[in-house]
Amino acid sequence: MKKKIAILGSTGSIGNTLLNLIAKDKKNFEIKLLTANKNYSKLISQTKKFNVKNLIISDTKSFKILKKKFKNSKIKVFNNFNNLDKIFNKKIDYTMSSITGLDGLKPTLEVIKFTKKIAIANKESIICGWNLINKELNKYNTEFIPVDSEHFSTWYGVRKNKDIIKKIYLTASGGPFLNLPLSKFKNIKINDALKHPNWKMGKKITIDSATMMNKVFEVIEAKKIFNVKYDQISILTNPNSYVHSIIHFNNGLIKLIAHHTNMKIPIKNTLYDNENYFLRSNSKIEIHKLNNLNFNKINLKKFPLVKIIDSLPELNSLYETVLVSANDELVKQFLKKQINFTDIYIKMGKVLRNSNFTQFKNKKPNKIEDILKLSNYVRSKIISKSI
Question: What distance in Å separates the CA atoms of residue 186 and residue 341, rounded to the nearest whole number?
């Protein structure tokens, strides 16, 4: 029987990778839903290739174009996620949630009740709204698998052994500036920051890798997903990005999870059950990388944003929304050449010391509106330069 699946954010890199995997094994899948924000032309191409009957496109202008395009067809086009009950008459097998940013939180929450398994590649949703997501997962008995390579690797390594975790080590390549002298950081240009040595990613996440802010986010994700404390998570640099997670168990055993720098691996493993593994990997172990892991602690003088972890509250709070939203806007300003690279550190520090925002360490997000309202507030403060 074909697996019925949905892809939220099908025109992005994660969605594209997933569809390329499915294209090699189309006989085993039926795509019930594809979604996008603006890229209607790519969505049309995907729809035709995979014979999809339900589409959601969020941008109003793109929705009108798509609606007109499929006016005389059996393809249903929606403008939002309020009508999922018209698309799914029973639970589907698998959903990939890969809409970027906080725009992905509401769709993720909305789709959980309609799917047996959800793979989430949207870190902002997990960071800011994990307690809301987890509530829905438990309510509808939906299986969750993280997609980020570090978290997927940790999940794969622990699975049903969460209770015996002593420590999780997340690895970082160090980005393009791992070996750059600190004295040269003030001269970093946009093109320099976008030259990641190992991964091909979008501009936003590549800058986050350069500042190491992505590792702060990944620590928060790991803390929430695996229900551990912050002092049970550490970051180690691993320049070749071959090892993605190290798990130290209370029984003394240590697992290292390694794989090539290719998102096909975690994505493919969320899609297929182990006992039903159609697309086997032909890759071989790269012994030379295992012989040169070169693990080290983070240089906090070069990457001061990592120190943010020490000030994070243990309980779910709205402070994480402050963190995500402020960083988003500062990275945007850097990419627009409005601020320098090191200004991201400086301005983020000011935001996180501001009493208007530290108060949110003690406030829990009870509903999605709490998160979205605060996010808009933080962004407006950054844009107006009132901090």
Answer: 7
Query: Does the residue 248 lie in any domain?
Result: yes
Query: Does residue 27 fall inside a structural domain?
Result: yes
Contact 147, 267 (CB under 8 A): yes
Both 122 and 202 in one domain: the answer is: no
Burial 202-218 (b: 16+ CB within 10 A, else e): eebbbbbbbbbbbbbbb
The secondary structure of residue 276, as a DSSP letter, is G
What CATH number has the domain bearing residue 332? 1.10.1740
Structural domain for 86, as ranges? 3-147
- One-character DSSP codes across 178-226: TTS-GGGGGG--HHHHT--SS----HHHHHHHHHTHHHHHHHHHHHHHT
What pLDDT, in 10s, does the model give residues 230-245? 999 999 999 888 999 9
β-pairing, 76-78 with 54-57?
A: parallel
DSSP 26: G
> What does the DSSP 8-state code read for residue 148?
S
pLDDT per position as a tens digit, 197-223: 877 778 898 999 999 999 999 999 999
Looking at the structure, tell me whether residues 133 and 216 fall in a common domain. Answer: no
Q: Provide the sign of the torsion angle of the four alpha carbons 248, 254, 258, 263, taken in this order.
A: negative
One DSSP character per residue, 149-161 reads HHHHHHHHHHGGG
Provide the token pair at 298: 């983070």
Strand partners, 97: 8, 120
